[in-house]
Amino acid sequence: MATSLTLVLPGDVIAKSALPTGTGKKKTLTLGPGLRHTPPDTVTATIAGALVTDNKKNAASIEYNTGRYLPFAGDLVIATANGSAAENFNCLLTPNTPSATLPHLAFEGATKKTRPQLPPNSLVYCRVASAGKDLPSELTCVDPSTGKGEGLGLLKGGMPFKISLGMARRMLAAKGGIPLLETMGAKVGFEVTVGRNGLVHVDGGNVKTTLAIGQAIQEVDIGALGDEGQRKLAAATLKHI
Amino acid sequence: MVAPAVTLTHLNRADGSATYTHNDYSIIGAVNGPIEVQRRDELPEEAAIEVNVRPAMGVSTPRERHLETLIHSTLRSIILTRLIPRTLVQITLQVRSLPEEDASAGVNTSLTLLPHLLHTAFLALLSASIPLLTTLTSVLIAIPSSPTTNAFPPLLSPTAIELLRAKPIRSIHVFAFAGDGKLLLNESDGKFSYEEWSEACQMAEDVCCGEDEEEEGGVKLDDGEGAMDVDAQAQGENLEKWLRSVVMRKVEGEQRWKSAT
Asked: How large is the ipTM?
């Protein structure tokens, strides 16, 4: 990804030269979080952070690591299902926010006769189907084109850990993965689920492994460890498992 | 003028937080939002803003209520409330310490505190990544009383001790400016003429957001005129630049992992 670091403050007008120019088919510029378009062609920042542009996707956004998660269509999130009403489960993405809806039928293989039963406060890995400011955001556990779960659904066992939004983005990035998990994965078996809303769910089979891996991830997040630091941490953690 | 010291995002339960220390005033600010709003406070097309000012000691009084109203109306004009409708942005400002001389300086103590509260609230909003229309900078200006106005130039962002020494103060003014140089808030107290007010306003604007002209001015002043030294120093510290340096540090912290090995 072609990136250039420009610092912006709210209200700063992004110069046209700083924005990517469309190539080939993708002529329309996509604006991610933190940018606001004022017609006809002014783009201003609304939050403080680093301007990130991607020439290949013809997209620009502002990278930030603090604050509350705001749902964005297409994001993978770990939601807490707490209660069911009519045809939906009411899910929480972050505490103290209006709940998002997860339809009963948005599960793999669900029909009107066989509805999924979720125990209260269970964790569900799902995708944000739609998010707008005027409607509660909608979640889904199936890929709309295939009707398959694709790994989405109820998370059993394990334990969720809080991480920063930037860390979640980093773990879900296209290049994917952090060396910590690769190094540890060579020695112990575990399952990690990353939600864009600042949660990572770890299932290591037993409590000790789960806690060790979860805490190691949090440590990488807080210490902003690079590749080398992560390998060291992985070795130290493996000793105690 | 000494640049304020700031720590961002140090409270891990709040969505955004900032501690701000300047001239012995120290304030902790926390922002939660956008969160669920109570039914009676809900606004159909914009976000509700709640400001809580907590004094250094005791319970809040009408003075804090007054400050809350001022901060609320100022922040309402810079938060993009229409982007997050039917939610609540909750801002809590806890005054941690005040200079000892604050009460005895003989000026309105709520005005001396106001610029610091505004800065704290704004930094906490930045930390919480709430969508904002523009930036905010604010400054306090005190005009000491004297037979001739030239003898005592207006004090720019004075410390409590400076205010005490310059007693009696004729009038004090608080100005807040948006990033584009628009006046957001003006609170004045005392006796003053329109010329004095306008001079104070110009001075505040130079400090808050005088980007280009201000740099030229600095060069000019260096050439000669020793009498203007105080002003030159004051102009050297531009609040806009200070804000950028604060954000720079925040971003560097966030991007640290990219360069770490």
From this structure: 0.89
